[in-house]
Amino acid sequence: MGRFPQQLFVALIFLSVSVPVQTQAHVSVPLGDPVYHILELAELRGLCVPLPSAKPYSRATVVSAVNEILNAGGRRFGGLSAGETAILLQFLKTHGDAKKGMDWGKGSYRFENEENSRIHASMELGLKEETVFSGGFYFQDKDFTWATENWLSAYVKGDVGTKFSYQFVISGAPLLRSPRKTLGTYNTYYSGFTPAPGDTVHENEEITTYNEPTAYFPYTYKKRWDGFVWDISDVSNSGMHGWPGDGISIGYSMMPEMGGAFLNDHITYRFGRTDREWGAMANGSSLILNRSAQPFLALEATVKPFSWLNFSTLTGILEYYDAKDIKGSAESSQNAFSAGMVELNIKNYFHADFGSTVVWPKRFELGYLFPLADKYLYQNNIGDFDNLALFLNLKGQYPGIAGLWVSFFLDEINPEAGIFKLDRAMFAYQAGTTVALPILPFGSLTVSYTKIEPYTYTHPKETVPWYDKPMETSYTNNGRGLGYYLPPNSDELKLRFEAMPEI
Questions:
Q1: Dihedral (C-alpha) 105, 19, 89, 81: value to the nearest 10 degrees?
Q2: What pLDDT digit, counting tens, does each position of 313-343 carry?
Q3: Residue 198 φ/ψ region, left for φ over 0, alpha for ψ in the -120 to 50 degree band, beta for the rest
Q4: What's the burial of 199, exposed, middle or buried (CB within 10 Å: 0-12/13-18/19+)?
């Protein structure tokens, strides 16, 4: 990992007027909700059955799991303290439906059709305001830097019947500032490189690189705006930028989704633009599809035929990063993303999941759309145009005590050269343990080591028959990695302590 100068970061203000946007039965609970930490610890302590490794979960799934934890009480490993019980009851209260009519405490208005209607339907309208201010002081440069975000959000959500829910959130940011420093420029090949006549693949391009936003701890900041931002002094096509920078900018965000369940909830599905995390053995640890990735629109589903077996599938459209302009940046970034994952659980003692992912230039490709076809093997049937990867996660734990896991992500290898000897052997791995701390409400200590080998998550441009120019096919979305938040050729030893205050 790169070196950072001595620095002191202070989160000066965090203000959220009104509670977080609620969700109805079958729309997602946002990944930032503290309930995901509760569920992770509950599984470790044997207080609920293992949940799927494809997140986010629907509100119905989360509420069902919380009720299971409450009903488990002290009959299972670890038990529940009085403070933990109060935390769970507060969660159920906070995420309950708003009362009919105007609810000033939640900033919402809710109505539903008459009880004698043949199909029950409800709708909830609400407003939300969030302000974040953060600052950092760099001792080496004697420099103070600051950042701020102000978001005004409106939402509509509801149910149609008991098996279908919808939600649409539109947000505007009239005040954005997140400075970062230019590290330099580099060439995709080398300065002075000239491709051979007729070579349209090896295109040399100069790219400007930046450090992480200077007002936040490294790798903790996640942008919320979509597409681009406008400089407040020039709200026009010429004022579009990929980052707010030192000046004041404005931006927007749109997060729509529809979700449901059928066959007695053995199959759940969602079609929406949300944050996701797949195959994380601890929250935020995924090498496959990490919560730090930018959201994208996708159709996903999880099938749970047995208590010990889950199957998840996803296909969505990736978004471009506005490094040049709205047309130039998107011209070679026309990609889709598909993933499939199989999970096996032996109660709360052992977990294994494995599967494949693919970043592919958009076209009507039935093999990647079909959930039961393995993406990695299917490419051999249609030709080498896409960026494939395999993954494997194994976790063993003793409920109430601790869990130990290993994760492996394989991007590309060359078996003829000894598999792991060449630079093109692109892979990442992780090992970690989470220990329950029963003396604190939902307390835990997690230690993990992650290694991202050189060039992992990268990929050369691909010349494909259905586009006029080579396509970017790296493992990225909207300028950020889909996998772990570290850049290639990095490693990390992470120590994380978590607990929740009693209510």
A1: -130
A2: 999 999 999 888 888 888 889 999 999 999 9
A3: left
A4: exposed
